[in-house]
Specification:
With about 110 residues, the chain is mainly alpha-helical. The protein has one domain: Cytochrome Bc1 Complex, Chain D, domain 2. The chain contains six helices and two strands; from the N terminus they run αααααββα. A two-stranded antiparallel sheet has the order 1-2. The longest helix has 20 residues. It is elongated and about 60 Å long. It starts with a helix and ends with a helix. It binds heme C (HEC). Heme C binds next to α2, α5, β2 and α6.
């Protein structure tokens, strides 16, 4: 293999690795969602307390929404009248949202 071919392969592999890691649900949750929902999903954060976020680790809260409702909450956000409680994450792909819903379900103890 020539050097330039090797470089092309290396660049392609790096690009694949980046795309994969960008869509890891755990990574998205920890980076984007945890400031309100907490790293463990309990909502035990400053923002979580202010917004009175319920605990994802409880069956009681998990039972209040279906997978479909969870997905649309992520995609479209949650509003209380005109007030935004959770912003819409419409820049996430459907696959990323499906992954996040599964991740949230797995937080249940
Ligand atoms: C600004 C704070 C904030 C951030 C950031 C945030 N959320 Fe929320 N989220 C809320 C609030 C407030 C609720 C309403 C919760 C409640 O009733 O306890 C909520 C509820 C939810 C629900 C339940 C939906 C339902 O129908 O009740 C899901 C699922 C959810 N969030 C997922 C996410 C995901 C995934 C992310 C990251 C991409 C995220 N949230 C980021 C504030 C936030």
């Amino acid at each position: 293999m020539t050097i330039s071919k090797l470089i092309t392969v290396a660049v392609a592999m790096t690009a694949t690795a980046l795309t994969l890691s960008a869509s890891e649900p755990k990574e998205i949750f920890e980076k984007t969602c945890s400031k309100c929902h907490g790293l463990d999903g309990k909502g035990d954060t400053k923002m979580g307390k202010k917004l009175e976020i319920k605990d994802f680790t409880t069956a009681a809260f998990q039972g209040t929404f279906t997978d479909k409702q969870a997905a649309s909450a992520i995609k479209e956000g949650i509003k209380d009248g005109d007030k935004i409680r959770m912003k819409a994450y419409d820049d996430l792909s459907d696959a990323e949202i499906t992954g996040l819903v599964a991740y949230i379900r797995a937080l249940k103890k």
